[in-house]
Structure formats: structure tokens, C-alpha cells
Amino acid sequence: AELYGIRNWGAGYFDLNDSGEITVKVPAGDGETRAVSMMEIAQGAMERGLGMPLLLRIENLLDAQVALINESFGRAIESCGYNNVFRGVFPIKVNQQCQVIEEIARAGHPFNHGLEAGSKAELIAALSTLDNAESLIICNGYKDEEFINLGLQAQRLGVQVFFVVETPSEVETIITCAEREQVRPNIGVRIKLASKVGGYWNATSGDRSIFGLGSNDLIAMVDQLRRHDMLDCLKLLHYHLGSQVPNIRDIRTGVLEACRYYADLVEEGAAMGYLDLGGGLAVDYDGSKTNYTHSKNYSLDEYCVDVVEAIMGTLDSEGVAHPVIITESGRATVAYSSVLLFDILDTTRFEPVELEHTKITEDDHPMLRNLQDAAGNITAKNLQESYNDALYYRDEVRSLYLHGQVSLRERANAENLFLQAAQKIRTLLDEAEEIPVDLQALPEVLSDIYYANISVFQSLPDMWAIDQVFPLVPIHRHDEAPTRSAIIADITCDCDGKIDRFIGRQEEQKTLPLHPLREGEDYILGTFLVGAYQETLGDLHNLFGDTNVVNVRINDDGSVDYSREIHGDSIADVLSYVEYRPQDMFEHFRKLAERAVKDGRISPQQRKQILHTYTASMSGYTYFEK
Ligand code: PLP
């Protein structure tokens, strides 16, 4: 657990058992927890025909996070003596999958947890899922008349829909639609805060943020609503500092600034009553509990207390009634519940390859003999010098090869000698008093490549697009020391399809400790905390499609229900996404086969076999199948 920091980032949900397997630990009805081996869950899925790669969704963790956020706000409200309630909403864009949204709605029902929609499609998803008159639906994003009309009709049915004005032009549309439909709309307004936050996803804060109204536009909107006698419809103030805000100071500064706006809108005569802080509640991906980009320097309880206290601190002094507190936490709600499991197909080592004729003789080129001497004379005291020599002689042999002066076999021997020297230097680095600058990258340069049965582009898009790091850990064999050090390459043919940044105890690491593969045995890794943003942002690079998905629920007796499953895209599926027509493709291939029969190259029976192979491939998984 220490080596991979499981207990640091696992938030109490992930741990190890005595057999060296990662367990998922979920709250049970008796107030205790139940732990189940992830290896057992994975094997159960594979036995059911859901092979690797497999996205595992643990429903209990989704329920637990929804409850935790609501309960934590509940405790903060009670302990601070706050005079209103918390109403969370889940932003659908963070994970739009129907099964996830349905589960959040189910788990959120006792807490009146609602949904946030940023588009017409998401509003329809929200309206078709929520069944709780107390829950809110917050509509952000650009809204056309159709979007607004749909929201107004839903309001007629008793659904609490709020339109958050993101741009000045939307006010007019909302007024026009509401007057035509004769519905008093619930209007919110998104403001641009001057506070700018740290972290990766901070472009939504500060003066140049794309969304939201500045103070001048806000006042123009208030006047416009007043002219239409609709100030009583302006009920909500919204802001969003950005996702994954690592520093609690930024959270507090944002609340304080927003409360100033809130109090002044009340002063202007707006009805108000709701303060929506947006998202930003961070996930501690690297377990460092710091204000690093992939971490956070606060607990959930601290976040809730700080928010409640900051609101009270500002509004009490202005004599303004406490509003309903809304947050749109997405990442923190869903990140823990999904784990991407995948197998390792093969490895490459940067070590000498066993060759039949390796002995360097008098007949070999002098450069080879020099290289052999350099490789034989390495000590902890001459690492830099030895490395320079080995590199020089290896490069000389390479250039001799280009000029036809050494044979391919001699070059192979030289490459082997160089790797032998470099590996020896690497092992001696630990003994060196000081590691020369040139050699600092050696462990990374000589690390293994583990070929993983995934597409980073499809399953972990933030990893290649914005250098996000996720905890990546084998889910078994923790009772053995991982003796290899590796980077991961995926199965797309793209040099960006690799993972070479991993969470570390101090800072990101460039290699990951792993176990050597064992003949005939699966080696399964998990990328954890991937429930937020990854699924729909993924793409079809090299036509690797959606992976298999399985939802599991761990029961109070420790048994596991495989509650839902979705088989990943077939090859026919992904081809049809890019406008191929599988039936026409089959016809084309059939004609090739028929012509081959006619030409006498294959028999009709062989044709049958060949077409069978073709159709089986078409309906197969896009990933490596064992
Ligand atoms: N609300 C809005 C308006 C957003 O743009 C986002 C995402 O950036 C969120 C909520 C969710 O943020 P998070 O996942 O950090 O909770």
C-alpha cells in the first residue's frame, strides 16, 4: 500500500488484503465496511464474458459519495447554526452515462439531490430521470428558445427548473418565452468573479472567463428585469471557479466575493434565495493532501464548514437571510466509483538480448573491443566516464555499420555490450555519492515498456490531452516486490498513446514499479478514480471503441451482484460510426472470395471458412482478445 500510496489516494475505499490483492471497501448497513478483492470481481466479470479492458463501476461508491457530500454539508449547517439547507446538483456533463445518472438520482433522492444540465440533451436526460419535487434542475450553458420553452413547460409540471443567465443576450430570450408561455421563470445569473484560482482548470475564473456577467452587465440585467416587473424571478446567483480547485483559500475567496454580489442583488430588490457555488471540489488523485494540481489541501468537512462560515460571515453583517446553498460537484461525486481494469500483453526490456555468437575476438573491429573494455571496467567511482566511453564506442559502431565497415552481427553485439554497460551503471547509481546530471535520466531511459490492452485516447483522454495523472496500480501480487520499473504503452499506433507520468509521494514519477509477467498468467492493472469526465471525452483513435462496462454492487453479506453490463463496441459498431456500412463491406469481401473460388485459388469449403472468419472479426471486440 505504501509503495503505491493506496491508502493516501484511496479515501478509505481502496486497500490491500492478506493475499496482496487490492480490495474495494464499502460502507455496509450495520455501520461497518465490507471489503471485496478487485481481482475476484475482475475474474467474475471475465467468467461472464466481459474481458479486458473493462470499466468497473462500483455503485456503492457512487452512493457513498452522494451521501457523504450531503451529510457533510448537513453537519456544517447544523454546527454553524446556518438557517437554510443544502441542495446539491450533479452536473450531467461530468458523466452522462444513463446508468450513472440513474444511480445518482436514486442515491440522491433522500437528500433531494438534483441535476445540472448544460445543454438541451442534458435537460431532457435530467427531466427523464429525476422524480423528486424538491430536487433542483439547474440549466447552465447557451440556451435557445427551444431549451427555455422545454424548461418552462417542465416548471408547469412542478419541476424546479432554474435558468442561469450566462450571457447578456439570454435575458431577452427568457423574458420573451416566459411572457409568451405565461410562466414565472426561476432565473439565475452567472457572475464572473475577479478571483482567479490555481490548478489546471481555472480558465473559468477571472476577468477573461468565457462565461458569466461582469458587474456592468449584471446591473443592466437587473434593470431589464425590473422594467418587465420580473425582479421577483431573479432568485439565484451562480459562479464556477473552475474544476479541481486544489487550494481551500481560493474556495473561500470565491464565496466571499460571490456573497458581496448576492447581498447587493437583494439590496436591488431581487427575490434571491439560492447561492450556487458551481463545481470545483477537488479529488486527491495523488494522495499528497497538498495544493498540487492533482491534489487538494482540504477535507470535505473543511470545504463545507468553510463555505457555510464564509456565507454567514458576509451575509449576517449585511442582515441578509441565509440562502439555500447549491454546489455542482461533479468530479468529487463520481471519480471514485469507476476503475479501468486492463491486462498487460507483453513487455520490452532494455537489456542485452541473448545471442549465439557474442564473444568479441581479435578479428572484431577495435571499436567493439574498446566497448567491451569500457563495459568491463565500470565501478561506482567512474560512472560518468564509463557511460561516456560506452556511448561513444556504441555510436562509433553504429556509424561504421552505416558505412558498411562492420556487420549486422557485430552491430548487434555492440548494442548488447552498451546495454550491459548502461544497466550496470544504473545499478551502481544507488551507491554513487552524487548522481551526475547526465545520468539522472538513466533509470527512465532503461525502464521497461509494458504494453497495455487499452487505448489512452478512448479511456483516459485527460491523460494525453491535459497531462492529468490518475493512480495506476496492479490489482494483485502486492505480496511480491515489484522488481521492474516501466512505462505503459497502449495498443494504438500513436507515440502519444503512452503513460509515462505517475503519481509519486513527492512529485510525479516517470516510471512505475511493476512485476515481471508470468507465463500463462494475467497481469491486471487498474487506473483508479476515472469516473469523472473520461468516458464521453474519449475518442475512436485507431478505431478502438468503448470498452466493456460492468456495474457491481457489494451486498451487506459481502457478496457481489453484477448489476448491469454493457458489452464494448464491436468492430462493426466502430466502423459504422465512421460511416462504413458493414453489410456493403461484407459484400465486397464476399465477391473477393467468390472470385478466388472461380480462379481455383480456394475451394468453396475454404470460402465458407474465410467468410466465417471475416464475420466473426466484424462482431468481435476492438481490443486484443485472448
Ligand atoms: N458546474 C459547471 C458550470 C462546470 O463548468 C463544471 C465543470 O467544469 C462543474 C460544475 C463541475 O465541476 P467539478 O467536476 O469540479 O465539480
TrEMBL record:
Tell me which UniProt keywords the record has, alphabetically: Decarboxylase, Lyase, Magnesium, Metal-binding, Polyamine biosynthesis, Pyridoxal phosphate, Spermidine biosynthesis
- The answer to whether UniProt assigns keyword DNA-binding to this entry is no
SUPFAM superfamilies given in the database record: Alanine racemase C-terminal domain-like, PLP-binding barrel
Domain Arginine decarboxylase C-terminal helical, residue spans: 571-624
Q: Which InterPro entries match?
A: Ala_racemase/Decarboxylase_C (IPR009006), Arg_decarb_HB (IPR040634), Arg_decarbox_C (IPR041128), Arg_decrbxlase (IPR002985), De-COase2_N (IPR022644), De-COase2_pyr-phos_BS (IPR022653), Orn/DAP/Arg_de-COase (IPR000183), PLP-binding_barrel (IPR029066)
What PROSITE patterns is this protein classified in? ODR_DC_2_1 (PS00878)
Q: Which Gene3D superfamilies match?
A: 1.10.287.3440, 1.20.58.930, Alanine racemase, Lyase, Ornithine Decarboxylase, Chain A, domain 1
Q: Which residues form the Arginine decarboxylase helical bundle domain?
A: 362-442
**Role:** Catalyzes the biosynthesis of agmatine from arginine.
NCBIfam families linked to this entry = PRK05354.1 (NF003763), speA (TIGR01273)
Give the similarity note: Belongs to the Orn/Lys/Arg decarboxylase class-II family. SpeA subfamily.
Give the protein name, as stated in the record.
Answer: Arginine decarboxylase
Native species of this protein? Answer: Microbulbifer yueqingensis
